[in-house]
Amino acid sequence: MKKALRLLLYFLFGIVGLIIVFLCFVEFTGIPRYEPRPPQLKVEITQARIDRGKKLAEILCRDCHYNPATNRLSGINMLAPSQFGVAYSRNITQDPYYGIGSWTDGDIAYLLRTGIKKDGGYAPPWMVKEPLMSDEDIYSIISYLHSSDEWVQPVAVADTESKPSLLAKILCHTIFKPFPYPDHPIPVPDSTDRVAVGRYITVVAADCYNCHSADFKTNDPLNPEKSKGFLGGGNELNQHDGSDIYSANITTDKETGIGSWTEDQFIQAVRFGFIPNGKTVRYPMVPRPMLDSLEVDAIWKYLQTVPKIHNAVQQVAYK
Ligand code: HEC
Ligand code: HEC
Predict the structure, then answer these.
(1) pLDDT digits (tens, 9 = 90+) for 127-145
(2) Which atom of ligand 2 is nearest to the CA of 207?
(3) Which of 85, 172, 203, 262 has the fewest CB atoms in 10 Å of its CB?
(4) 305: Cβ–Cβ under 8 A, 6 or more apart, which residues?
């Protein structure tokens, strides 16, 4: 009996020791690096692609990369210190030294798809990854980054290194791994299939599902519908001052979701931030006026097809 107990103790010490060695390794090596394998790619720039790219950048990139002081996508301290640490986004203007002016189209596409930067570093949890975006939309974002729009004109602002938390480092060594670069073309959804269009906006082009499912850590970016609590809300996020806020349940459950809303109320909330109780949505939910009513209508139609989740999300008092 005693011997068994001693063995068990040795075993437990062994496990604890291994965990400590792993944590030290993670703390010192930081976010992992990978060998970048950017594709050969030269995007043909058209005005239509620039326009589409600007819209996608307004929805997907602006909130994190736009700096009002420079009126450029020159990077910011992302204010809300979160469970993942203190994050600074980067200068993604055309400046060849401080920005991404020296990146090839392949380098940009490779980062957006896989999460691996030109220097081989893995872009941590804050930076979006787009493994499911249509090729056409990736080309549009790249075209926009090369355009004469003022947000992307070169500005000599140096990047500040982010300070990922131990949790962010552990996750990047375990569950947050680079996505494979797609080995097949990814088409734009058929525009006559409004539910498919709505799904694409919800899980790809406006990334709603990412915040609105249970937790970033259990989201499944390659199969978004398999994310825990898909669109059922409750994801713990941070307001500008760092205080907690929880994403809303946007499934059509009558009591805890938006099942009793009218489509017009939904459009008002998504485009302008006005919600039926007379309040406005708080950061990090940002109104999306650039989505037109037809697009929000498509999201609405898609949400009617998503399984309802009964989940009363914790409410945070308005300040
Ligand atoms: C939720 C916040 C967030 C969003 C949204 C976001 N980014 Fe980023 N991005 C970051 C952060 C933070 C980094 C810095 C990563 C690091 O520390 O390595 C970054 C890094 C980058 C880099 C690497 C730059 C370099 O010098 O290494 C590029 C390029 C980039 N982002 C482009 C984009 C584009 C294009 C979009 C829109 C499709 C976008 N980002 C959306 C937060 C974001
Ligand atoms: C960056 C994270 C984030 C993204 C992206 C996001 N949301 Fe939200 N959303 C939130 C949070 C947090 C709340 C709760 C805000 C509050 O309580 O004031 C919210 C609230 C809402 C509400 C109000 C629900 C209610 O019951 O009051 C709707 C509707 C909504 N979001 C729809 C969407 C749609 C559609 C998209 C994509 C176009 C989207 N959201 C993208 C975080 C996000």
Answers:
(1) 899 999 999 999 999 999 9
(2) 5
(3) 262
(4) 195
